[in-house]
Amino acid sequence: MKLIWFSISKASYTFTDAKAKYLTANQVLSLMPINKVNLALIYEKENNFKMGLEGYFTDEQFLYNGIQNSCLLGIWIYG
Length: 79
Known about the structure:
Mean pLDDT: 78
Distance between the termini: 32 Å
Number of strands: 4
Radius of gyration: 19 Å
Number of helices: 0
Largest sheet: 4 strands, antiparallel
Order of helices and strands: EEEE
Shape: elongated
């Protein structure tokens, strides 16, 4: 009997609604993404091989003055 194993070994989501309440005007925390997602997918064939794919999503981030940082828009990274 051959065993083929497939699993999602890691899936996580983080929602961050953080504010700098000590500031009176703009309460945006710099470079703090609101949404983050992490996924890992693994495929294994018994006594033969194992392979995996990982994906990470980080939502847009802002500078301390509230201006969106064009280099850090929502981004997916795979590996």
